[in-house]
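Quick one:
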Amino acid sequence: MKKKPISSCTFHANFIIIILLISVSVFSCFSVDEDAIRTDTESPSVTNTIITFSTFTANTITLHWMKAADNVTPVSALQYWVVSSLQSNVSSIEDVLNNGTIVKYWTPNIDTITATGLSLSTTYYFNVLVRDEAGNTTVYTIGTKTTAVSNDIDMPTPGNTGTLTFSSIKLTSITVNWTKAIDNMTSQVNLQYKVVRSLTNNIDTVQNATNNGILVQDWTPDITSVVASGLSPNTTNFFNVLVRDEAGNIAAYTMDSRKTASSAIAPWPGDSGIIAFPFFTNVSVVLQWTRADDDITQQEDLQYKVYRSFADDISTVIDVTNNGTVVSDWIYNIDMTIASNLTPVTLYYFNILVLDENGNISAYVSEHRTTTGP
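Output:
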């Protein structure tokens, strides 16, 4: 007996209806996003289109950029196209597509890439395109970088074992000093230095200094000091110096810290700044004074500098600095010195400057004495 085909047809019809319903349901779930993408005409936006560069060698350059945002496409789905050129001809979208050599094809959710296979000592121009799912495209700002002059892989050696020193410590600034580095291939005058600071102990290595440091001085050749300004009073800052050779190798000095001054009050000279002359001859004069005091610096940490002049023109700190001849340079905790190699029967004016740890300076009271005859 033959089976009735109608049940089979009914099953298949029901099955087809179910499939259609599922298809309609799935289509409905995605139709909103697809419609939004289809009607999207707005290009991705970038807060900062500047391309930056970090490490580079004779054959590679690493570049970075800020990720874009979009009104429809998620940040993770935005795609980036990176190109290079030997000429400054990749500024616009059309230029990038027509003139650029591809470094990275359309790739989602990236913000850094290393361009490889480059020629040594060659200037390259880079640019980045970002596009959303609708195909709207935005171009970044063209950036340029030169590869290193050699395949040197040895890092420079920081001078004086990487020790940093500090001077002129003031309320809102500190001068950072270091000894020049040396390198196996790059001359000292071509070594470049970068200075960073931080409020925490987190800039001890090249990577940490790069990631965590606040810029004090960007890469500059042949320098040994820099003034870190804009600091907060009575605050400890950590500092480090990076040195880079022409091949792009970077070394870090030894991180150190220093606190800014807590006071702008200058020391006050002892005994109202009076200078005495207990002994003098035809070619020398002994100067004596009472040690100064300070609101922050201990008396033994105060420094003194002695000047002389042939005229009565060294009464103030500025006058002393501009007009005086140094008798003795900064010395800690002294109250006497000898001015020697003077001319017989000659009138000399003398004064003393006192310096505290915060860089504040005061002058004593200028006094004169005439050397004796031959």
